[in-house]
Amino acid sequence: MRGEAAIELRRLGKDFGPKRALRDVSLTVGWGEVFGYVGANGAGKTTTIKILTGLIRPTSGDAFVGGHSVLEQPLEVKARLGYVPESGALFEKFSPVEYLTLIGRLYRLSEARLRDRMGEELRTFSLEADKDKPMGVLSKGAKQKVCWISALLHGPDVLVLDEPLNGLDVETVAHVKEMMRGLAQQGRTMFYSSHLIDIVEKVCTRIGVIHAGQLVSVGTVSEVMAGAGAASLEQALLALSGSAASA
Questions:
Q1: CA nearest to 26, candidates 210, 212, 239, 233
Q2: Does 132 reside within a domain?
Q3: How many domains in the chain?
């Protein structure tokens, strides 16, 4: 449904007991955007992502992926979404090939398509030498590569990325940044949550700054900096967090 926004958050709220993690967050992300979602630890980034990916339900409001509600059409959302978590909970006794075969079958890829896609991505991420080893013996970086491949395997229209570069080597980080630009040029959308400000500045078309569960600024990096009266994005984030705390 390309007539709809890639991602839309409508007055999203989430409470954990007496703690309010999200407060009426509304946001629209278009197709072909690499949207950066930034804020301090505990600001609400991961809570937002868990709602988008269907891992938790919002207390109020709704979220949409390609016009499909995470509350009313969760399977439609998951079919269109790829998710790279900060640290994936992988089956340690499975090899990458076994795990990716399971993921591909869950997405109902044909065996031929699954074989082709898996081989292509294993080569792209330089995992061919480790493809048949138990994941319990692989490095953190290798496991993160498996998470990336599992997110890309079914060719999703929207990628949700939560600190996706954790553990990756310099060469793979460079490849991932280039790949993200390529996917955006194809009209795919990335919702990218990170504390690595320099990478956010380089790859994101727009950013949203969240503080204490509230969205306090949205725009290009230049617009956010200008709105905060700051000379750098880091200074803008500090200023916006301070302003939000005072308010």
A1: 210
A2: yes
A3: 1
Other CB atoms within 10 Å distance of the CB of residue 129: 9
Are the C-beta atoms of 145 and 168 separated by less than 8 Å? Answer: yes
- Would residue 39 count as lying in a domain? yes
Q: What is the DSSP letter of 1?
A: -
**Within a domain: 12:** yes
Q: Which residues contact 42 (CB under 8 A, 6 or more apart)?
A: none
**What is the pTM for the complete model shown?**
0.91
- Asked whether residue 88 carries a pLDDT value surpassing 90, the answer given is no
Residue written as token pair 């980080």:
173
Phi, psi of 114 (to 5 degrees): -60, -45
- The confidence band for 245, taking pLDDT boundaries of 50, 70 and 90, is very low
**Cβ neighbour number for residue 92 with a 10 Å cutoff:** 12
CATH for 111: 3.40.50.300
| Token code pair at residue 128 | 């061919």
* Position 162 in a domain: yes
Give the residue among 46, 41, 40 at the shortest CA–CA distance from 241. 40
Taking only the tens place, the pLDDT of each residue in 37-83 is 998 888 899 999 999 999 999 999 999 999 999 999 999 999 999 99
Tell me the per-residue pLDDT of 89-117, one tens digit each, with 9 for 90 and over. Answer: 788 899 999 999 999 999 999 999 999 99
The C-alpha atoms of residue 92 and residue 228 are separated, in whole angstroms, by: 46
Assign 135 to helix, strand or coil: helix
Q: 232: how many CB neighbours lie within 10 A of its CB?
A: 13
3-state secondary structure of 36: strand
Range of the domain at 68: 7-246
